[in-house]
């Protein structure tokens, strides 16, 4: 009896538990499926219509010297004096003496050649007298003067004396020029960019005493792509110069006005870039100097971009289309063609579209945009 109870009790308990669980499951209400809420993205937009725009052409270059010269003496000698203005960064005027070379040797040469000239002049006077005396003696002998040889009439001696006089004058002029060349002068208005001369140095024709950069004007060589070159009037000999604006990242608050004066006759064959030359007058005589070697950005006025829409650069997707919002607050894709870019904006022309202008263009499109998607406009 006890064995039967041990077997039946667990079976009864399991059967009761199974029956209770089955009833509980059957009484559970069925699960109802819920649709996820529809997310309507909020978009930033700009309203645009096709207009004529005039974005300038932006290019860049480095300021170069218009004239730059290395001072080398034309005579040799010891440097006896260096001007106080012959210092790096100082401005000098044309003709200003920067250094002085010892003139002793050249003054000695001038004195010697002057003495030689005096002697040659005396010799010439003597030969003139002898030549006249020879002519008189020949005529007094009863012979025709035409039968006398030039040597008898001392004509070669007279020509030699005249040649000596000419040679002495040339030697004196060279000695005087050498004395003048001992004064090293600035060839033009300039600023000193380098100086090697010091008192006591020996200067020769191979010596470099310093480097001067002209202050009258400077040049900037500016590259233009074929697209940029097509939008401006390239300067030439028959067209007037065009004013452009220069800025530099080293002096953000400064602006300079330069003139576009000429176009280089050769185009770079590797990338078809054409170079134009701009000039700026007196780059150092300004409140904001523009030193040689400064990197500058150049803004060049350009021709109009007709019938174009200006949108943020990011609004143009894959350089192929934009997203616009309809009156029903749905998205529509419109084909677009880039014409020009400037300072983060793209100038585009739209393809065929049923939307009337002005267009409500999404300025920051998302990657999950689809045609017909519902959106709402940001405030």
TrEMBL record:
Residues that span the membrane, as ranges: none
Source superkingdom: Bacteria
Gene3D superfamilies, alphabetized: 2.40.30.170, 2.40.50.100, Helix hairpin bin (1.10.287.470)
Domain (Multidrug resistance protein MdtA-like barrel-sandwich hybrid): residue spans on this chain: 70-213
SUPFAM superfamilies: HlyD-like secretion proteins
Annotated NCBIfam families: RND_mfp
Family: Belongs to the membrane fusion protein (MFP) (TC 8.A.1) family.
Protein's name in the database: Efflux RND transporter periplasmic adaptor subunit
């Amino acid at each position: 009896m006890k064995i039967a109870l041990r077997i039946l009790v667990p079976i009864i308990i399991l059967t009761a538990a199974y029956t209770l669980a089955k009833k509980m499951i059957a009484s559970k209400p069925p699960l109802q499926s819920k649709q996820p809420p529809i997310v309507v993205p909020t978009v930033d937009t700009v309203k645009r219509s096709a207009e004529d725009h005039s974005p300038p052409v932006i290019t860049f270059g480095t300021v170069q010297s218009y004239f730059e010269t290395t001072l080398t003496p034309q005579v040799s000698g010891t440097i006896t004096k260096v001007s106080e203005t012959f210092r790096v960064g100082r401005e000098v005027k044309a003709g200003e003496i920067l250094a002085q070379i010892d003139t002793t040797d050249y003054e000695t040469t001038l004195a010697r050649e002057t003495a030689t000239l005096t002697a040659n002049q005396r010799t010439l006077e003597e030969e003139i007298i002898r030549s006249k005396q020879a002519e008189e003696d020949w005529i007094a002998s009863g012979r025709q003067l035409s039968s006398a040889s030039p040597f008898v009439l001392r004509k070669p001696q007279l020509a030699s004396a005249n040649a000596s006089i000419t040679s002495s004058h040339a030697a004196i002029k060279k000695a005087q020029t050498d004395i003048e060349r001992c004064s090293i002068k600035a060839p033009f208005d300039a600023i000193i960019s380098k100086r090697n001369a010091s008192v006591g140095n020996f200067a020769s024709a191979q010596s470099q005493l310093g480097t001067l950069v002209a202050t009258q004007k400077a040049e900037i060589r500016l590259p233009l792509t074929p697209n940029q070159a097509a939008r401006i009037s390239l300067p030439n000999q028959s067209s007037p110069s065009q004013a452009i604006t220069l800025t530099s990242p080293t002096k953000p608050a400064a602006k300079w006005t330069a003139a576009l004066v000429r176009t280089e006759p050769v185009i770079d064959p590797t990338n078809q870039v054409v170079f134009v030359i701009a000039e700026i007058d007196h780059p150092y005589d300004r409140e904001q100097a523009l030193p040689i070697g400064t990197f500058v950005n150049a803004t060049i006025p350009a021709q109009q971009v007709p019938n174009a829409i200006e949108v943020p650069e990011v609004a143009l997707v894959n350089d192929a289309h934009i997203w616009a919002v309809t009156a029903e607050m749905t998205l529509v894709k419109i084909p677009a063609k880039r014409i020009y870019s400037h300072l983060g904006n793209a100038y585009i022309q739209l393809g065929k579209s049923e939307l009337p202008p002005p267009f409500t263009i999404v300025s920051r499109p998302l990657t999950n945009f689809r045609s017909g998607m519902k959106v709402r406009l940001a405030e």
